[in-house]
Amino acid sequence: MTQRRRGLRIALAIAAAVLAALAAIAIGVRTQLPSWLRGTVERSASQALGRELTIAGPFDLTLSLTPRVVARDVRLANVASGSEPTMLRAERVTVVLDLVSLWSGPLRVRGLEIENARLILEADGEGRGNWLFARAPEPDRPSASPG
Q: How many alpha carbons fall within 13 Å on the CB side of residue 70?
């Protein structure tokens, strides 16, 4: 075997290893990122609205210059005094984001589609509407005490 062929085989082996590593990373991102993001979206929205948001169905993320998030069977809890436990139920919610805003902020939504939604708007005996949201209190964080 000549030196040239040996070098070519080594280069091909390295290229194959790099491609296999990239494929493994891509598969990992595709399978693990949506489940992590689902939990993050549920927690962040619940905290921002002061009510529980759940995504009971499939959750999908398409990565591109305009990332697209599709969530199915989305539910937003009603106020405690509401006539039903769920204020909003949507069969499918699609959000298209501006990629740059994910890093630079504020987050910009380029598109929003809501399919087959059921929304209950109601007021309590004192006229407070269930469409008024209050942020949930931030959890107490332990304070750093000087040592």
A: 8
